[in-house]
Design a protein that fits this description.
Blueprint: E1 6-10, H1 16-26, E2 31-35, H2 39-45, H3 59-66, E3 71-74, H4 77-83, E4 86-89, H5 109-121, E5 126-130, H6 138-149, E6 156-160, H7 170-175, E7 180-184, H8 188-201, E8 210-214, H9 215-246, H10 250-258, H11 279-292, H12 296-323, E9 332-336, H13 351-361, E10 365-369, H14 375-385, H15 391-397, E11 398-400, H16 404-408, E12 413-416, H17 428-434, E13 440-443, H18 450-456, E14 459-462
Parallel strand pairs: 1-2, 1-4, 2-3, 4-5, 5-6, 7-8, 9-10, 9-12, 10-11, 12-13, 13-14
Antiparallel strand pairs: 6-7
Helix pairs in contact: 1-3, 5-6, 9-11, 9-12, 11-12, 12-13
The structure holds nicotinamide-adenine-dinucleotide and uridine-5'-diphosphate-xylopyranose.
Nicotinamide-adenine-dinucleotide (NAD) binds next to helix 5.
Amino acid sequence: MPRVNKICCIGAGYVGGPTCAVIALKCPHIRVTIVDLNQARIDAWNSPDFHLPIYEPGLEDVVRKARGRNLFFSTDVDKGIQEADLIFVSVNTPTKKSGVGAGSAADLNYVELATRRIAAIATSSKIVVEKSTVPCRTAESMRIILEANSKPNTRFDILSNPEFLAEGTAIKDLFAPDRVLIGSLQTSEGKEACQALCEVYRNWVPNDKILTVGLWSSELSKLAANAMLAQRISSINALSAICEATGANIDEVAHSIGQDSRIGSKFLRASVGFGGSCFQKDILNLVYLSESLNLKEVAEYWKQVVTMNEYQKRRFSKRVVDTLFNTITGKRIAVLGFAFKADTGDTRESAAITLIRDFQEERALVNIYDPQVEHSQIWSDLSEASPSMSLETIQRQVSICSSALEACRNAEAVVIATEWAEFKTIDWQSVYAGMNKPAFVFDGRLLVNVEELRAIGFKVAVIGRGERL
Ligand code: NAD
Ligand code: UDX
């Protein structure tokens, strides 16, 4: 069995960075080099004061321990490829914006470019590991490209090793994964390559958590896991609409159904809608795959998960407008949280972006506060969401604040879009004193103590609760 001494990871993003930093930490005998074409990103990974390009609890500690020892970040992609025995391909696979499958198929251009680079550069045999989330059978295309371009005496073995970490808990998830999934061809060479990667993970992951399966099952399992997780959220959010219309309470419903051990209590938190770079993209990917396989009903089934999520976001912003006497024109709305979930600075597909766009269209004034998201990122997301508006026009309507208290000053309503822990300890008495009356709170994250806020004088509307404000 080939032993892995040197790993290269192509893509220093949210997955490649933390995943391979943890591999380096747990495997001091392996030299790990993470490469990326993006100079600014690599510079940030190498920054002397550890101002890393992504915010992730525990990540800085891992990088501090391993960087310069056996963990390196570089833009020299070719050198990284040349030296490695095993290469992770952890590049982005966004939804295609144009061409065939636009709006649902995965854009595999970055995967293909990385694969072609490996083929062009490698002069020794490599294990190439698909870490990016890709449609079923992408490994086959990678294998064809690699074999068609390989040099004499150079073998490529392809593995699929999808990543299941969630942002905000990435380091915890990587230290103690529910499972590590490795897919390989069921040939003797494929199985050997698979064992070589298993050996890497065995340095800290118990053997019974390392699952080895066929390549296609591995690729499909990743899409399936995300689709099923997102489907739970859309299911609970669909029920939250019924709760609001009937007076049932979604927290009580979620708790009651979650006690059934077949259902389980996790991932049943009603919200303003799921965000993040994965759920929508991967479901649409599954929808496209199903359509390409002529499985129309299957495609429609999964598409509904995304449709329900869009409905949830729209329903929430409509509730704000309806409650504020059917107009928010010229009214100040404080939006607390811009990241797609707590403990990350990532804003990709964040529900907050959609809500703020809706408020802008109603000509409201919006104050935003988020403890982690860079201001430049907020402006870029809002510009992308409203392409017909200039940045100057957006900035006349929207302000970014440096605290929750500042954001809420002179506002008519507070909207909680992200479940940051610090929002649980807001001094609501002071917030109330600084707001116009009646003062409204719209909780899209089941975060506030409703009774306490009502006692102060707030009118409180919570997702999945339909009682009088
Ligand atoms: P990302 O955009 O943060 O990082 C991808 C990086 O790859 C970028 O820095 C980009 O510059 C680099 N890159 C692209 N093409 C390259 C090339 N040819 N050579 C060198 N570098 C190149 O993306 P991410 O969030 O890390 O996601 C990566 C993959 O992992 C995606 O397929 C995603 O679906 C999957 N995934 C993401 C998460 C998550 O939580 N973000 C979780 C599981 C799986
Ligand atoms: C997800 C998967 O969980 C992870 O396994 C995969 O590798 C990548 O995609 P991520 O998107 O980082 O991870 O975060 P996750 O915790 O799954 O949350 C996704 C979205 O769903 C967030 O907007 C979150 O707020 C929302 N969510 C989550 C809910 O609205 N309710 C819940 O009960 C759980």
